[in-house]
Amino acid sequence: MSLFRDDGIVLRTQKLGEADRIITLLTRGHGRVRAVARGVRRTKSKFGARLEPFSHVDVQFYARGSELVGRGLPLCTQSETIAAYGGGIVTDYARYTAGTAMLETAERFTDHEGEPAVQQYLLLVGGLRTLARGEHAPHLVLDAFLLRSLAVNGYAPSFDSCARCGMPGPNRFFSVASGGVICGECRVPGSVVPSSEAIGLLSALLTGDWETADACEARHAREGSGLVTAYLHWHLERGLRSLRYVEQ
C-alpha cells in the first residue's frame, strides 16, 4: 500500500454505487488518473464539492502496490482546492461549453493513464484560468487551447511556410491532411482557400498574440474555428462531442 500526492484538474466524474464517484483527473506528475472518491455524493460532503469538473486541486491518493496506476483504481483520500475555476465558468454558457470542450480535448490527448503529460497539464491550467477570468472571448480561448494542444502533441499546423515543401509564405491554400497552409504546386484535392485574416488569427492564437486575436472580426473568427475543428478532428480521428455546443 502506498500514498501518492499530486495536483491536477478534474476532467469529469462518474457515479459509483450509492454515494461514491470515479474521478478522472489530469495531474502534473502522473498524467491522466482515475480514482475512487468515497462518500462524495452525500449532501453533507465538503470533500465532494472540491472534486467537480474544472477544479484545480491538490490530491492525495491511496493505491495498492508501488505504482499509482496499477491493476485497480486508487482511492482519492484527501483534496485541497488550489483554484475553483468552475465558479467563473459554469454560470456562463459560452465559457461553460468552451471549457467542457477543453476538458474533453485534454482527456483525448492523454490516452494512457499514468503517463506524465506536463505540457498538456500546464496548457489546461492556463486555459481554464484565462477562461474563468473572462480575459478574452471564450471561443478564442478554446481555439488557442486546441491549437497549442495539437502543437505539444506533435501536430502543429503551419500558417506561413508550405507544410509540404517549405516554400516561404504567405501561401493561399489550406489542407488538414497536409498539415496546414500549402503552396499552389503542392495543392491537393480537398484544399480550401481561407481568408488571410483567418490564417492570421490562427497564427496569432498559436503564438499568443492576443492583441491581434482580440481585434479580429467575428466572421474571420468563425472561419478560423472551422479550420481548427477540421484539423483537430483529422488528428483525433473522431470528433469531440462537446464542440457541437460551442457558441461561435
UniProtKB/TrEMBL annotation:
| Gene (UniProt) | recO
Protein family according to the UniProt entry: Belongs to the RecO family.
Task: Describe its function.
Answer: Involved in DNA repair and RecF pathway recombination.
- Residues of the signal sequence? none
Asked whether the UniProt record includes DNA damage among its keywords, one would answer yes
What keywords were assigned to this record?
Answer: DNA damage, DNA recombination, DNA repair
Name of the protein in question: DNA repair protein RecO
Q: Which HAMAP family match?
A: RecO
Q: Where is the DNA replication/recombination mediator RecO N-terminal domain?
A: 1-68
- InterPro entries linked to this entry: ARFGAP/RecO, DNA_rep/recomb_RecO_N, NA-bd_OB-fold, RecO, RecO_C
What Pfam families is this protein classified in? RecO_C (PF02565), RecO_N (PF11967)
